[in-house]
């Protein structure tokens, strides 16, 4: 599995970039530089808190839509959007972003590994879902059987 999906940023590191981002917002008339915004978003997508990951995804989506985005930065934005959405279990969206990156850079091994990891997580979640559904059906069947047994005793 791609290490980036299981590796978390330290709280200190996140606070450092959050302070830099907020400082630029305050001193830059409500605008932080694209570089600082990306660094902060990068940290957020690698946070343990899903609310942070969502905020990071939002910042990255804004950067991606920015007219000043060049190809080098677009690659990073796409990659971490895929990471963020995968961490949020939005697998189809994460897959969409990594496939867009692979269209731009077909030989990108990091993106290829991320694509495999996303597909693997999708399969794992599908198996978990099937197990939960199967368990629910068994439980419901047991309840029906118990109910019928109780009715026969009366």
UniProtKB/TrEMBL annotation:
Keyword rRNA processing part of the UniProt annotation: no
GO process annotations (BP): autophagy of mitochondrion; mitochondrial fission; mitochondrial fragmentation involved in apoptotic process; peroxisome fission
Pfam families, per the entry: Fis1_TPR_C, Fis1_TPR_N
UniProt keywords, alphabetically: Apoptosis, Membrane, Mitochondrion, Mitochondrion outer membrane, Peroxisome, Transmembrane, Transmembrane helix
Free-text note regarding domains: The C-terminus is required for mitochondrial localization, while the N-terminus is necessary for mitochondrial fission.
Function: Involved in the fragmentation of the mitochondrial network and its perinuclear clustering.
Protein name per Swiss-Prot or TrEMBL: Mitochondrial fission 1 protein
């Amino acid at each position: 599995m791609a290490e980036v999906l299981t590796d978390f940023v330290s709280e200190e590191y996140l606070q450092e970039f959050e302070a830099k981002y907020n400082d630029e917002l305050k001193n830059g008339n409500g605008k932080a530089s694209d570089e600082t915004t990306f660094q902060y978003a990068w940290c957020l997508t690698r946070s343990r808190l899903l609310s942070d990951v969502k905020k990071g995804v939002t910042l990255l989506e804004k950067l991606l839509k920015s007219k000043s985005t060049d190809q080098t930065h677009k690659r990073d934005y796409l990659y971490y959007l895929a990471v963020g959405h995968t961490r949020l279990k939005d697998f189809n969206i994460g897959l969409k972003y990594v496939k867009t990156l692979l269209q731009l850079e077909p030989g990108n091994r990091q993106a290829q590994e991320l694509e495999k990891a996303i597909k693997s997580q999708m399969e794992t979640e599908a198996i978990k879902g099937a197990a939960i559904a199967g368990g629910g059906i068994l439980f419901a069947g047991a309840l029906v059987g118990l109910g019928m047994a109780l009715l026969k005793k009366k």
